[in-house]
Structures are given as C-alpha cells and as structure tokens.
Amino acid sequence: MITNFTKSVAGAAIALAFAGQVAVAEDWRGWNIHVEEYPNTIAMDAFAELVSEKTNGEINLQMFHGGTLGSQPDAIEQVRLGGLQIGNFNLGPIGPIVPAANVVSLPFIFKDVAHMFRVLDGEGGAAIAAGMAEQGLTPLAWYDAGARSFYNGDRPINTPADVVGMKVRVMNNDLFTGMIAELGGNPSPMAFAEVYQALSTGVVDGAENNWPSYESTGHFEVAGFYSLSQHLIIPECVCINTDTFNALSADMQAAVREAAQESALMQRELWTKREEASRKAVEAAGVVVNAVADKAPFQEAMAPVYEGYFATNPDLRPLVELIQATD
Fold it and tell me: What are the φ and ψ backbone dihedral angles of 38, each rounded to 5 degrees?
C-alpha cells in the first residue's frame, strides 16, 4: 500500500529534482563584433560549444556576431550590467572604464605580441584582471589582436611628420586621441562600422588597425597605404559579467574558464594564419606596404601621453614600470 506519507515524499522529491533542473539550466548571450570566419568568431563559437560540453549542458551560450547586438561600447556596458553575459572585447574601449586596463593602450608599451602575453600571464595581467572585475568585467582568457599600424589613402607614413594634418580614425579612448594629436594629426573617434564609409568619403584620411581587420572590412580598398608602425599591441578578452561568474559554483567557474582558455589557444593559432593570409591578400590587391625603419621618433613623441596618464593615475606608474621591465 502506498501511504499518503510515501506519496508526499515522492512528490516532493520529484518537485525538488525539477526545480533543481530549472535552477541550474542557464541561457547566456554573447557579443562579438567580428565577421564570420574571423579567428575570433570561430573561437567564440568553439567557446560556446565547450561551455555546454564542460558544464554538461547546464549553461547554453548563444553567440551573436558582427556587432548585431550593438556597438562595442554599448555591449561593454551590457555585459557590465548583466544584460549580456559574455563579450569578446578589445581592451581599448575598456580602458576609459578601467584605468589599470588602460596601460595596454599606451603606445609602444609592449615590445611585441609575445611580450604582451608574458605580461598578461604574470603579475601585470593579474592586476589588470582585478581592476576589470571590480567594474563588472571578469576576463576569462586573452585573445590575440596583433599589432596595429597606420593606413591611409594618400602616402606612406615613415616619420611623425607624415601624420601632420591627417585626420585619423581611432577608438574612443583619450590615449589614442592623444597619440594622434602628439604626432600632429587630427584624431577622429568613431564606431568601427563607420570607418569604411568615412574613408570612402574623406571624412577621415586614414585609420589604424591590424592586418585581418584592415583586410576583412575592405578598408584596403579605400586606403591603399599600410605603414608598419606597430604602435599599439592591444589584446582582446573573453569577458563575463562579474556577478554572473561569482554566482557560479567553483566547479562551474573552473569549467567556464577552462573553456575560454582552450578557445584562446585556438584563436591565437588561427590569428597567426589569418594575419599571414590577410597581408598576402591586400598586397596582391596592390596595397603599398612599408616598414617604419626608425620608430624612435614616434616613441619619443609619446612622452606627453605617458605623463598625462600618470598625472591622472599616479598609483599605476608601478604597473607600467613592471610591464616595461618584463623580459
């Protein structure tokens, strides 16, 4: 005989199990500005699959690519506020929000990409990540975004004098506008999606970015001179809303972070191949590429940019010195 007590216990157990299933199943949305087949897009799709796999389907991440959920500044705010859970962001637009993250946007602070990753994997990266987490963005992994160089439709850039009077699109960050201004140019912050039209119509004379972005957006079609200044080496992050991450169990946090870091290894490998392919593609299309033989005049011109940063953030001078001292 099934007693009322037995029925009550069984019913409670079923209800509890069902409630538990509902509580742990989460649907997340992720933002990415890049186009299909771009290294970051492929890696973020892999990240979504890995999250589902490593959490046994308890977290389902749907990625939205090509900036379809808004501009990068808007998406950063959405992740900070929890409207989106995940974002693949360049640290440039994060810098104005997180002073510690802004160090990576100081021109010429990194010797090369390998040096950047050595910094991010050490004490410097931990300080940057802590500052970001305090502002609602917890980095799970770092993606490669290569080195950014100048391009325009008029002439090669070999010295700071070649930038004088040039209207140059930059990301919205005072360090970038300061960099162009100190070179004698006119900085023009604008959304990435607007750059092609701005170059086509002469609203700006030039811009600056890495090989894959220059090629994949078609900017090379309207700005045929690419000058290897390599003035900025800025990583991208896979970031999660801090409250969302902190609400996860330790095991779930580990699973999500592991998924992101595995995707980062994929992204970096794909990035290297894409850089090579993008350069070959634009050179085949007739783009004039020049190496900047002497970067010292550019670096020396950045002294006021650094001093302005220190004036506003005196407590971050040790972090800058730590980065510069990292082998």
Answer: -75, 145
Tokens coding 217: 């957006």
Q: How far apart are CA 304 and CA 289, in angstroms?
A: 29
pLDDT of residue 266: 98
Instruction: Collapse the DSSP code of 212 into the 3-class scheme (helix H, G, I; strand E, B; otherwise coil) and give the result.
Output: helix
SS3 160: helix
CA distances from 224 to 16, 87, 215, 216, 230 (A): 64, 32, 11, 14, 17
- Determine contact, residues 72/85, Cβ cutoff 8 Å: no
Q: Which residue has the tokens 């946007």?
A: 105
Structure tokens, 152: 């325009």
Total-model pTM: 0.84
Give the bridge partners for 168, in sequence order: 187, 206
What per-residue confidence (pLDDT) applies to 173?
86
pLDDT less than 70: residues of the chain: 1-24
The per-residue pLDDT for 17 is: 38
- Chain centroid to CA 154: how far? 29
Which of 3.40.190.170, 1.10.238.10, 3.40.190.10, 3.40.50.300 is the CATH number of 148-233+281-313? 3.40.190.170
Q: Which two tokens stand for residue 139?
A: 């980095």
Give the separation between CA 131 and CA 159, rounded to whole angstroms: 35
Exposed/middle/buried for 179, CB within 10 Å: 0-12, 13-18, 19+? buried
